[in-house]
Amino acid sequence: MRNPDQDIDTAITDINLTPLVDVALVLVIIFMAVAPLALKTGINILHSKAGASQGKAAVGQNVTVKLDRTGLITVNGHAAQAVPDALRNMIAAALDASADRLVIVTADDENRVGEVVRILDVSKQAGALKLAVMKNG
């Protein structure tokens, strides 16, 4: 039986939410699948284990970069310029004499993280295969 208040020729003006919900759920699934791939940036760090240094090169054969609280950078005890190209060249020359191409960055508590990360980045660009970070003192 027909409702007398509703005319057959009246258009449906309600919004159909089903396609909107379908599209939103598909986008959520796509973002869930892609998000882990976007988080794979940064520097890989390997944690050392007891006895891991056996059979490795001596500590004196590694490249040591020190950053003191005044901002002075030294590579194997020799003062280096803070200019990235000069620092990269000095680290690359020291890495040529290194057996396992390990760079150890030592910094004080007062140093900023950005300075240490910049040194790690320059070391990687200079050809370091392994990076280590140590606290001074």
- The helix content is 25-40%
Rough outline = rod-shaped
Mean pLDDT: 79
CATH class of the domain at 59-135: Alpha Beta
Report on this structure.
This protein has 137 residues and is of the alpha/beta class. It has a domain at 59-135: Nucleotidyltransferase, domain 5 (2-Layer Sandwich), CATH 3.30.420. The protein has 3 helices and 5 strands; from the N terminus they run αβββαβαβ. It has helices spanning 18-38, 84-96, 113-125, and strands at 63-67, 73-75, 78-80, 102-107, 130-135. It has a 5-stranded mixed sheet with strand order 3-2-1-4-5, with helices on one face. Helix 3 (113-125) links the parallel strand 4 (102-107) and strand 5 (130-135). Helix 2 (84-96) crosses helix 3.
Overview in brief:
The protein contains 3 helices and 5 strands. With 137 residues, it is α/β, with parallel strands linked by helices.
Describe the protein's topology.
Layout: H1 18-38, E1 63-67, E2 73-75, E3 78-80, H2 84-96, E4 102-107, H3 113-125, E5 130-135
Parallel strand pairs: 1-4, 4-5
Antiparallel strand pairs: 1-2, 2-3
Helix pairs in contact: 2-3
Question: Which characteristics define this entry?
Answer:
137 residues, alpha/beta, Nucleotidyltransferase, domain 5, 5-stranded mixed sheet
